[in-house]
Amino acid sequence: MSSRRDFLATSSASLAALTLTGCAKAGADGAGGTSAASELPPAIAALTPMTDGVVPISVDERRARLEKARRLMVENKHDALMLAGGTSMEYFTGMRWGNSERLLAVVIPAKGAPFLVTPKFEEERALEQAHMGPLGKEATVYAWEEHENPYEFFAKGLKDRGLSTATIGVEETVKFQFSDGAAHIPQVRTANGTPVTAGCRIFKDAHELALMRHASKVTLIAYEAAYKSLKEGMTQDDFEELVQVAHKRLGYSGSAGVQVGKYSALPHGSATPQVVQEGSILLIDGGCKVEGYSSDISRTFVLGKATQRMKDVFEIEFKAQSAALAAAKPGVPCEAVDAAARQVIVDAGFGPDYKFFSHRVGHGMGMDGHEWPYLVRGNTLPLAPGMVFSDEPGIYIPGEFGIRLEDDMVITENGAELFTPQSESLEKPF
User: Fold this and answer.
1) DSSP code string of 209-262
2) pTM above the 0.85 mark?
3) What are the pLDDT digits (tens) for 5-30?
């Protein structure tokens, strides 16, 4: 095993370069035989790609999503759904499109063929992506030149489908300038499309769950390899590099925010430079994506020996995370899961209410790391099988340290199940 001096000499000077050059090659080639791999800490150099057997979402699966969306449109009295670039567009159509000031929209009628409104110079690229996915060859494009009003073309697409008078459900992340433009089409009314989009996306099927389980497994293995490579004198940036390189060795792009010592008491951390010392507590939070599906895992650990106070707080945290897991069952309101974890923390003296546990216990997950629904007070939506959430209570003591344990869980027919094993202790986190 390399000495601290040897390791720091390579980590500070070489890790950034390895991430951008050698490690990209090493991640593609596997763990063996590259000069880049030989310069890495042994635990990270030993990692090999975990990409075998990973199956992307198929066109037929996306086609079934569109059919469900159409059923929900009818239930919500929407004549069509408007999507712009972002996660929901990819979820339903497979199209990956960034947003700019120019409107590119996919419009999915409750009945009839979908259509695209696109800048003329993007027409071929848009059609290429549309035809590769469930929109297929029947999808038509209404293409506008730079001097033209795209919403006139939007209106024509609706009229051609007998929807001159229509209610359009707008996906929640569509930019205001686009939704406002649609709202000003004569005889068109816009409405919140979330009941349709979230109504589909919050329920994960077996394939989606498999991708999310795999993403969580990848991230936990990357974290463990980085943890085994932790040395006194590293900065938080050094450790973040280790996490990134570990994910890359496993075949994915992943990362984690890292907070050291008293800065771990800030749930999302600080930009202040931080150095790891013997006895330092570290809180890391991040994940990766596998075929578009997210992991989100936090671990808290100590370099060397934890103090008794740290151990005591960890035990409360562990019980709070376990209480949330136990409370999560079909039919139970989302807010009850937050309440179960919060009660453990408050009863242990870290209250009242949000004083030390300053955020909700969890958020929905899927293609986005944060998506509907949320485990938070006031959300009475009943849990149902196929919903996926983070389970992440935290205790943050200003000026001392913070501890957060976060794993991802799926609601099952009988309760809830974590994708990854819970952390055992601050000194044995994996």
Assistant:
1) HHHHHHHHHHHHHHHHHHHHT--TT-BHHHHHHHHHHHHHHTTS-EEEEEEEGG
2) yes
3) 333 333 333 343 333 333 333 333 44
